[in-house]
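Consider this record:
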Amino acid sequence: MEEPVREIVHALKYGGWKGAATPMAERMRSVSLPRDVHDEVRRVIPVPTSGVRLRERGYNQAERLASAFAHAAQLTCTSDLLVRERTMQTQTGLHPDERRANVAQAFSVPSAGARPLAGEHVLLIDDVWTTGATACACAEALLAAGARMVSVLTFARALPDRRDGRNQR
C-alpha cells in the first residue's frame, strides 16, 4: 500500500480514529462497480472481527466502513448475518497458504441469518485485501447460507513483496 493509504488504514484499525471510516467509504463509493453489483446489491455485510479485537479496539473497523458506505450508497448494512466463530492468529505477516489455513471454517451465518440472505447478491466490505483468504472464507459461509452471489469491496489492497511472496502492509 502507498504510505497515505497505509496511514489512514492504520489510523482506523489501530489508532482509534473511527471517523476515518467516512472519508474511506467516500473513496470506496467513487469506485466504478460492475453493473450487476450496482443494480442488484441492496445489503452490505462487514467482515466480522473477533471478540478479542473488538474489546481491544472498541469497534470493528470493517463495520465502520460498511456502515459509512451503506449510508452513502443508500443500502442496508447488516452486521449480524456473518459471525466469526473463533479467534484466529493475526493474519499480518502470514504467507498466503498460512492465511488460508488460518481462516478456514472461521466464519458462519447464524441460522436466523440464512433467511434474509436467500437469493441475495450481497456486498462484503473489509478494510484491506491482502491474499483474499478472509474474503473467500466469508463468501463461502454466505453462499452456504443461501446468498446467490457475494461481491467484495475493500478500501485498499496490499501489494506482494516480490522477495518472499508475503504481502506488504
Q: What stands out?
A: The mean pLDDT is 88.
